[in-house]
């Protein structure tokens, strides 16, 4: 009886290992093929990629934590609130973790683009002025480009990103409505950064301000909707 149980256990382990190996091999091939397709798309249309979007999140966090203004604000916040400095440090790290995205090429140019292409053309007649869109390519590569637009619905985020996909990848600030799973993961993989619209704490707003200044200096292309500001 014990021998049979041991045999079944080893069989189960063998099946699980075989499945995981097969899944890894298949997944690896699919991911490589998708990345190859993305690289071809980017090369074909000479899409501007903001290199800083691919910066490791730990490095971004360290840059912000080492900022003199944020450091002084941490000390001031600790004095005003009667908090331990280490606790305030951890609070700032939580803010940074919440705000900073992790841009993923496959999410943006495969999953996001495919979904946008399907639903937008299902709902609207999407007309892109290619002649004017091509002017974007004449903007110096080291410039920080900010698109300022009117805002009518949450579809606008998707529409603008879709229409500009042959030229650039655009980052937005998104509010609390998108901070639910899986929307939070999806939007962060698109390069969107989060903000708390009704949150008035000075320390939080300084961290957010410094992050936006940082990505602007690094030339990250951003989009701002006036009515949604």
Structure overview:
The chain has 229 residues and is α/β, with parallel strands linked by helices. The protein contains 9 helices and 4 strands, in the order ααααααβαβαβαβ. The chain has helices at 2-45, 57-65, 68-81, 85-99, 105-123, 130-133, 155-163, 183-189, 202-217; strands at 146-149, 171-174, 193-194, 222-225. A 4-stranded parallel β-sheet has the order 1-4-2-3, with no helix packed on it. Helix 8 links the parallel strand 2 (171-174) and strand 3. The protein is globular and about 70 Å long. The mean pLDDT is 86.
Describe what is shown at a glance.
By secondary structure, the protein is of the alpha/beta class.
